[in-house]
Structures are given as structure tokens and as C-alpha cells.
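Predict fold of Carboxypeptidase; 501 aa.
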Amino acid sequence: MASQKLLLLFLLFSAVSTKAVSLKKNQIHLSPTSSLAKLQAEKLIRGLNLFPKDVANTGIDVLAVGSSKIVEKQFSFPVLGAPGPSVQEFGHHAGYYKLPHANAARMFYFFFESRNSQNDPVVIWLTGGPGCSSELALFYENGPFHLAKNLSLLWNDYGWDKASNILFVDQPTGTGFSYTSDDNDIRHDENGVSNDLYDFLQAFFKQHPQYVNNDFYITGESYAGHYIPAFAVRVHQGNKAKEGIHVNLKGFAIGNGLTDPEIQYPAYPDYALNTSLITQSDYVSIKKMVPSCVKAIKSCGSDDGDACVDSYEICNNVFNQIMSIAGNVNYYDIRKQCEGSLCYDFSDVETFLNLKSVRDALGVGDIDFVSCSTIVYEAMIVDWMRNFEVGIPALLEDGIKVLIYAGEYDLICNWLGNSNWVHAMTWSGQKEFGAAPTIPFVVDGVEAGKLKSHGPLTFLKVHDAGHMVPMDQPKASLQMLQNWMQGKLATSDKAENVAPK
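Predicted 3D structure, encoded as C-alpha cells:
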């Protein structure tokens, strides 16, 4: 089972096309490791039942030539199911933004006004991959709707738009409905990713000035454990430098993320042993592979380039060895078995978003929806083993709230590895955080998780959830978000259930 299994919320992607090979050759040098990654990515996408037609979105321009502004339209989908509000009661927007620091890139996004109050915080959600569309979360996790099997939409009673005004962004360029006709616009690192997101955010608030003073939070999962802290640092730097519009950044939350690989990869055999995926003798054998992985990650941090690509292969050998023993277990949720190559079925989102009627409603013209992009994934391989914990301590010192949460049954970005890096992080409150008590996270009088908190930092292990917490525990995830934004999460064992029922 594949060296790609490592991480990502939906990781990966489709078959090779002539166009893809051309794009790739112009973009990055392909090492044998990168070629192997593509093959493994193609296997993985079958496990999610996603088969995008293209390996990256290179659609023709749907915006006016030279436009650097947002082109946005309000739309409405027919939503079935009662009881429920009328979709016309809320502002649902879709748009494109021409990225100013790119040659031909257009970033696509959804924006849903809060079902509660316009004064609720503005939340942005970033799906991982790298290269998977945030529409996967929109329709299967925490968006306003769920997709029924007949492709009708049902209101999500626990959509995060019940507590926030929420953005779902297709990024990096080439993902989802975001596109470019220029190979040079494909991003390779978090500097490019975070600058594009910052430029978009500035344009969004200029387009929607009524939200400028609202609290702002960055959220996401999986490979977004890289995106989110990099983006938070960029926003905070922009605020300090008084660049453009001040963004009222209050915090960020990472769900089952990959943030500090040097600490998280060595946790694989420990988690696998603790959950009986491997035996003690297996554990001893696999642990012997860890030092070479750690050494390779350190080389990536100092040497960049090929060292980072090599570390990707070396470290994924640890994960692969566990999976070769565990067999057909679903590495996103070890309570489940994969049936054949199929571990989840997210195919309806591709079918729905490629309907002409839907594309017309969204204003995307003839552009196809690319659920996950192999080109984006491969381009970000050099970024994979970098440590993005390093920017977080300075944010904590400035009072930016940080929530790291993880479903307890996810192997690929498991709670243990995430807990380890959070506890190892050096900041002024490190000792106090380590000594803080672990308390229950309570939903409707029942323990839904265990959390630890000190100052602006909180870690939460969510019970009965895998990689995608909002999908597995929708009510708990909404209460988590709402309590956290209100500063009540650390007292949730005593607090009333404030999430809408």
C-alpha cells in the first residue's frame, strides 16, 4: 500500500495525461521518488472513488483580461428536506479572484453567510491533499449542505455556517475550480501558497467591507497543517506591517494535520502498537526505521531540494511497513476496512459539480471540477517534510489562539503524533501547558473528547472520529468551533451545550 498514504485529507488523484506530463516537465524535475509518488497517488484516489478528468485545472480564462478584482455572483441551489430554512434567506456566493502575483491564475471560492448572525466570525476552511478541493469538506463535512445519493442537497444541521460566515477556498492553483493556463503559477512551497491566500483575503474584505471588523479564524485539516500556520504567520505579518486592510485574526485550528513531520513520523509505530495494528515484535522492527527517517527530515531542513524529496520516500517507508502488516484497514479510520480499493466514496461531488446546471449557477462556465490534482501534489513534494510548527510560538506569544484537534481513530495524521509536537513546542507557556489537567469535552452531557489547554493553546482528542472529524462527529465539531471561538472550550465540561440543536 503506498508510499503516498501519508497524509492528507483526501490525498490524491488521477490518471496521467499528455497535458499533465507537459505541465510537470516544465514545472519541476522529476526524481524517481516523485514518479513513485504519482503512481501511489493514483492508487490512493481510487480508495476515495474520485476520478477527476484532468490532473490540474488549466481551464481557459473566464475573467476579463487584465482584471485583478474579484468576480463574484450570488447563487442558490435547490435544497430539499424539511424542516429547514429557505436557501433564499442567506447569502451564498461563488467567485473567482485573479491572483496578482501570478501570470494567469484564478482562485475559486465559496462564501456562505452565517445562518445565525452577520456579526459572527469569518472562518476560512482549507482542505489538504496537497491539491484537494475544499468542496470535499463543503459537501461531506462542515458546509451548509450534504449531498444525497440522488444529487439533491439537504441542509446540514451542524454546518459551520451556523456559527460563522464561512469561506471554502480551492487552493493551491490547479485545485478544484481554481485554474491557470501558465505552468509557472503552480506553487511549490508555503511561501507561494500563503501569499496567494493573503492576496485573496485582502480582496475579499475589500469586496465585503461589512465583515472587516469581524473576528477572523483560519481552519482546515490534513495537509492544511502546513497551509494554516504559514497563512496565519503571513496574515499576522501583514497586520504588523500595516499592509492593506487589517485582518482581525483571532486564531487558527488544525484538524488531524501534518505540521511537524520530525516528531509526527516517529509516532506511527507507537500509535500502531497502541491500537493493535501491529504486534510488539513488529514494533521493534519498525522502530529501527525511525532514526533514518528523522535524519532525512533534518537534512531536508538544512539542505532543501532533493533532500526533501528523498526524506519523503524514506519516511513513508515507516508508514508503508505498518500498512503491509495492518492489511486492508482504512488508514483514515482504523475502525473500518476498505472494500477492495474503495475506502470512501466521494464520487457524487465530482458528478454534482460537473453538471452544466451547477457550473452555470456558480459562474464557472465550461471549466471542469478537479477534485484532487496530481500536479499540485507532486509540486508540493519538496514542501512535505518541512516543519511548520516553527512559526506558531510567536503567534501564541502575541495572543493568537491555537486549537489542534484530532479524531482518535485516524492513523495517517494520528492524535498521538499531533499531541507529541504540541507538547514539544517551545514557548513561554510550554511548562504550564504540559502540567495542565486533561479534562472532558462534553456534548449534551456526554464526554465527546479529552482536551488540554493553557493560555491561547488547546489540544483536543475527539472520541469516535477518524481523519475527518466534522464528518464523523458533526455536532461535536460544531460545538468545538463555537465554544473555542467564544473562549469557552476549556470549560466545556461545565458549560452548557451552546451549539444549535
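The first strand starts at residue 70 and ends at 74.
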